[in-house]
Amino acid sequence: MAAPSTRLFSSTPRGARLARQLALHHLDTWGVPHSSPASDIAALLVAEECRGLHLVEALADRWDVLDRIPVGKTVVAELDLTH
Description:
The chain has three helices and two strands; from the N terminus they run αααββ. β1 (62-67) and β2 form a beta hairpin. Strands 1-2 form a two-stranded antiparallel sheet. By secondary structure, it is of the alpha+beta class. The protein is globular.
């Protein structure tokens, strides 16, 4: 499975929507269909304003915050998928 490309999204409702759409597209490409339980959880994890890290902590099996150079942070989250 190929790694997704890195993209920066604005911290706006539009940026959050685009980030969710891209994440769900990648999951579908990797065999996790839209509207599956794993896809629905991933949609909650991606780009939620304010409460996002609380959702990440509650729903992800593993997650971390990485520094982004020269400025910023990136949250990475992993879900254990069962088919």
